[in-house]
Write a sequence for this structure.
């Protein structure tokens, strides 16, 4: 009976998601243009905050979320007078690797990225 109760309790507790807080070096490409921000992410439960910095811009605030191995975050930068929102949607391959896609609004351009935790 005790074994059955313990088994029920252990199966009822969901597995804890990995905490992806830290500095991430992102390497990607959108429409043959490199996209390589350094992102400092902070995870609190499923919520992501922090900042990302592209070489030619100031650091931008991040908003995102983590659901199991699925990770997404976005930030907005200004380039040549236009505001662009870059959205990164990926899968955590390991505790230190994310692979996925990038979408850029309002241009509608798409691309791919990999991110490595530093």
């Amino acid at each position: 009976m005790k074994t059955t109760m313990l088994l029920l309790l252990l199966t009822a507790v969901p597995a804890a998601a990995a905490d992806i807080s830290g500095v991430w070096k992102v390497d990607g490409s959108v429409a043959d243009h490199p996209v390589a921000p350094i992102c400092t992410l902070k995870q609190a439960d499923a919520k992501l905050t922090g900042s990302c910095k592209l070489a030619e811009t100031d650091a931008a605030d991040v908003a995102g979320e983590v659901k199991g191995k699925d990770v997404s975050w976005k930030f907005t930068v200004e380039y040549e007078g236009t505001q662009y929102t870059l959205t990164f949607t990926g899968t955590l391959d390991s505790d230190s690797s994310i692979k996925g896609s990038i979408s850029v609004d309002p241009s509608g351009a798409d691309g791919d990225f990999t991110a490595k935790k530093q």
